[in-house]
Write a structure and sequence with these properties.
mainly alpha; MetI-like fold
């Protein structure tokens, strides 16, 4: 989720950094899922991932690809949850990268193009170094969000099958509320809290260094 979300968001931002009506409409389309409630869209995606009549398998079948059991199979359950999470969260991080691209210096890029530098070398040696503080910010907030993810795992898979989609947040709920093992659930919650605090402090430090306000 963290690696894929960061890479996809950066790719979208690079494609959308130019203006125009079509680009502005695309920005809205990419960000719109992030503005929708997790509980509502998770319920919709339970139908999309339905192995018998869901949209996902229909699309695979229409292009002559093998269908999947999605959240009902151990091998595909976590990839299915990652697909949904990317769909829901990529819009926000794309906007963060667009903000980073809007403030980086264009002078170095123009000088590189005059000297015959290609698009890939310009990105790798000029654009990417200037985006590294923003990339660090995106990686940290995506990691925090992934650690706290609960709703989609509760609605789509309930931590299964065979606990392959049981995250820390879901384990706190399962142990502390479902099973009633409140001591163990509280211990997991404390560990999760400490990890989140540490990552938040790192985020604040890198945000200040990159000029990003919390």
């Amino acid at each position: 989720m963290v690696a894929g979300g960061t890479a996809i968001s950066l790719a979208f931002a690079l494609l959308l950094q130019r203006g125009g009506r079509a680009v502005n409409a695309s920005r809205l389309a990419i960000y719109l899922p992030n503005a929708t409630p997790l509980i509502a869209t998770s319920l919709i995606w339970t139908w999309i991932f339905n192995p018998r009549f869901g949209l996902a398998n229909w699309l695979l079948h229409s292009v002559h690809l093998p269908t999947s059991q999605w959240v009902q199979a151990q091998a595909s359950a976590m990839p299915a949850l990652i697909i949904y999470s990317l769909w829901h969260e990529v819009g926000f991080t794309t906007l963060v990268f667009l903000g980073g691209l809007a403030v980086i210096s264009e002078e170095y890029g123009e000088a590189a193009r005059v000297d015959g530098c290609g698009p890939w070398r310009e990105f790798w040696y000029i654009t990417w170094p200037q985006l590294r503080p923003v990339t660090t910010f995106v990686v940290i907030i995506t990691t925090i969000g992934s650690l706290q993810a609960f709703t989609q795992f509760y609605e789509l898979s309930e931590g299964g099958p065979n606990n392959v989609t049981t995250t820390l947040s879901y384990l706190v709920y399962q142990e502390g509320i479902v099973i009633g093992n409140t001591g163990y659930g509280a211990a997991i919650a404390v560990v999760l809290f400490l990890i989140t605090v540490f990552l938040t402090l790192v985020r604040r430090r890198t945000s200040v260094g990159a000029g990003i306000t919390s």
